[in-house]
Amino acid sequence: MNQNEFIIALTQHRYLGNVFLPYIIHEKDKFYTIERHVKKRDLDDSELSLKPYEKELVEIIEKYSDENLVKKFSRAGSVSEFYSKLEPAWFEKQVSPFIEKCMFQVVSILMLSPVRLFNKQVKYSNLYDEDEIKVQPLFARPVFYFKRTETETRYRLKVFLDEKELPLQNRNIKIVTNNPCMILQRARLVAFEKLDAKKLVPFFEKEAVSVPNSIEEKYYGGFVRKTIRDFDVEAEGFDIVEDVAEKVALLSVEYNLKYEPCFVLKFRYDDKTFLSNDEKVISVQQEKINGRFVFRKIQRDFEWEKRIENKLKKAGLKISGGYFSVKGMELLEKTNAFYFLINWLNTNKPQLNAAGVKIEQAKLEKKYFTGEQHLDLETKETDDWFDVYATVQFGEFKIPFIKLKNHILNDIREFELPNGEIAVLPEEWFARYKTLMPFAQGKGEKMQFSKHHYALLGRVLKPNDKSFLDKFQKLNKSTAEVELPEDMKASLRSYQETGFRWLYGLHKNSFGGCLADDMGLGKTLQTLALLLKLKRPKGDVNSVHPVAVGGQLDLFSTGKRNDTFQPASMIVLPTSLVHNWEGEIKKFTPSLKVYKHVGAQRKKAEEMEQMIRFYDVILTTYGTLRNDSAFLSKHEFFYLILDESQYVKNPSSKTYKSVLKLNSKYKLVLTGTPIENSLSDLWSQINFLNKGMLGNLAFFRRYFITPIEKHNKKEPQEKLQILIRPFILRRTKEEVAKDLPPLMEQVILCEMAGSQQKTYEREKSVIRNSILSSIEENGVNKSAMIILQGLTKLRQLANHPQLLEDGTEAESGKFEEIFLMLENLMAEKHKVLIFSSFVKHLELLKTKIEQNHWKYSMLTGQTSNRGEVIRQFQEEPDKRIFLISLKAGGVGLNLTGADYVFIIDPWWNPAAENQAISRAHRIGQKKHVFVYRFITENSIEEKIQLLQGRKNSLAEQFINSNNPLQEVTKDEILSLLK
């Protein structure tokens, strides 16, 4: 049974000339009939069952189908339009070479496959055995024979097929393709690998070609040289010498056609250079010696070239389109990509040279240094400084690293060497040292860093000096062996002891620190423990206090003793906190002598020296400091401590400038909110503590504030954390929860404002006389209404004068203190309940809260949607303040979302207050609750608190009696009005 067969036919195209086409033929008795013309779309036809090489032939031939030629070479709308406008010259130059290249690929497959080739007439569909063309399995080899005489040069061309000569002259040879040439002779298809038919045609009719000597210079320099290069040549009358050339591989730094930086690999054989992707195999150099032409023929060593390419790939290069690049550089901008290449050479040049590859950069405008470059670091510790000896080795040149400071800070990658070459600084140096260099102080060829940069130095420099690393480890270790002061009248919780030892460790190494615990965790107590531990020895106030504390010398000291007198420590506070500090000093560290440098009665400038020598602690306010900075700055204090240090967050403020003028051996700041609005808040406080540690404000804004706050970059965040971590200690309530009782209560004493104090004293005198007169006439019981009205009026004045008089501009010390603490809690993202007996007091707070754009809830007797108000506070994280009147919110509420409770106007009914506290401190509360009672000092509130302490039954009398004053004596009432 006859089967179908896949064949290739050589036929004539109306416009294209000789072409190959694929067909399926079917054998009949004495001929073959064409069943179908095979197209690419037929390849998936299961009936055809084409072999892989047959499919490949179809795909190659399809490339020069009419439709594909139109797509590739024209914008014509149709095939007919394409051919009607086809210019012969353009066809010969563009289209014909493409088709002949495809046809050569077809023949290359036919030479090795069983597919038969037939000669097909255009008009006929039948094929016969005599139409078959035998495709020769080997390429024909042309050999040129040149003979130079005194008058001419003659050359002949012979063609060998499998070492047998193929006659050319008068042999009825048909040209199938021109370049590479394919010919048809006696039903044989003979293909040449790279011969142009133009060189073959002359010998179809004559045996030799003659060239006169008059044009031989041009002839030998062109045709003869190229023929020697591309073909086998036998010469007579001139010489062909095959040399063994000296081989050099060149890696050239250049730009490709897209102006992208790249490496170009070249191979130099003596004076001839080949690109790595050059298809030329042989180089021929011509010269004339004593009238005789000499051609030097150099053969490329492709095995050697391949070995070089493999070594480059192994070194990390990749090749694309004849160009080499480094993996990953395609992601970089062009300039950085170029620098990336140069730095790759800096690292890999020794390996390249060992592999026999030389570096070339002849096409660049500048000459770049491509040798090895490395940074050597040696660190030494002297007194309060770290000396870093850092040099960069650029080949033969040693450059102090400090000379690159401007380059590192300003992202300048190019550095000119003494010989004029340009070194490209590695990007790693910018990433690693950019935040370090601003802190470097040049001293000759070394860099000096203050010791408070030790954490950044340890992370960035990573020195090999073991003693230096040991110092880092010692600095980071807790001073666990330090004992608490013996005469401390308080038991510190575990985390407070840790805080005390942390402060002590900073002191021991002369570092300033920021204690930034959450509000209510006892920053004051930890600070007092430190001051008590460091209290000057008993005896004469002129006693010597050495630099060694607790028997331990400063890690960075030279061992010398600093025999200077220890002056008092100054603590700068908001006005409202002066009395709280004084109270806690007297309560917990009574052996510390304390002086309040506040108010009109404070000591004058000439007396300050005595105060500093006699007292251990001097309390002053930020306002007083501004007024007295001129003479206070003339003295040196032992410690300068800023409480609520966010008061100095504005570096342009008078307060900040006044604080900087003060002199002290040691510094400390206390705040629950070191950062309220911006990182500039942090800079101000750290710069006060350890001047220059974060650079100047312009640098800090450029390298930290802008990239962190505007661009949220992680790297500057991490470096800033490294810088400040040793000097800031912050614990939240949640972190130390195991050390806290479920409920902690504290009384906050608030000093009246000046005008408030005057108004209160005036009204108190009037009320006292009125009450005294009524008691004398009617007795205590019948005077109850007058007494309660008078005491209530004084309570209102103690809270805020505006509770009695609308529109007054009078200030309130308690009001200021409440908001100081609220600012901290809002910054720390806590929730707080604020209880008051007076709705108007809550209204005043509400107005101030709205000015600060804080979200809040409010519950009074007038609130109708109680459930919704409570739900919003409990569930909405942004609502952090709940203003509640004591009567409306004392019972029936579950407000476990809050962990702070403010009782802002306590009265003598603790039961009502306890009910209010229970709104937050109850079953379901998972947080520790802090309760603050705000008491105005020297007011009715403080007197009632004292009276409660002396006579516990008083509260019970007021609660359980219809007449709460019936059991109170005249003397007790008058004591409230003293």
TrEMBL record:
The keyword ATP-binding applies. The keyword ATP-binding applies. SMART domains: DEXDc, HELICc. Residues 814-966 form the Helicase C-terminal domain. Pfam families: Helicase_C (PF00271), SNF2-rel_dom (PF00176). PROSITE patterns: HELICASE_ATP_BIND_1 (PS51192), HELICASE_CTER (PS51194). GO terms for molecular function: ATP binding; helicase activity; hydrolase activity. Keywords: ATP-binding, Helicase, Hydrolase, Nucleotide-binding. Residues 504-692 form the Helicase ATP-binding domain. This is Superfamily II DNA or RNA helicase, SNF2 family. The lineage of its organism: Bacteria, Pseudomonadati, Bacteroidota, Bacteroidia, Marinilabiliales.
